Amino acid sequence: xxxxxxxxxxxxxxxxxxxxxxxxxxxxxxxxxxxxxxxxxxxxxxxxxxxxxxxxxxxxxxxxxxxxxxxxxxxxxxxxxxxxxxxxxxxxxxxxxxxxxxxxxxxxxxxxxxxx
Length: 116
Hints:
mainly beta; Jelly Rolls; three-stranded antiparallel β-sheet; 9 strands
């Protein structure tokens, strides 16, 4: 069965982890939709906010929707603007930061088993 959702109708929640500031998540597609392989999440990072500096065993793909951000890691940092795609390989230390004065929004796709 095909699933169609309006983002505004998907409940969101604050990300409450150590090293996180001003980040919320909406799980757009995942296990409840009977997705067998991937999860699609929408992250919003408030001005001054950031995700934790972390690594994980899975890859993920990110697509920037709005705002300005930065991805940082051992290689340095790269600016992120709307219409930018990012691939983060497994085991690469990274984090995302809002580099602007409006919310920084991006889609993040991960293997379904990694969506927790």
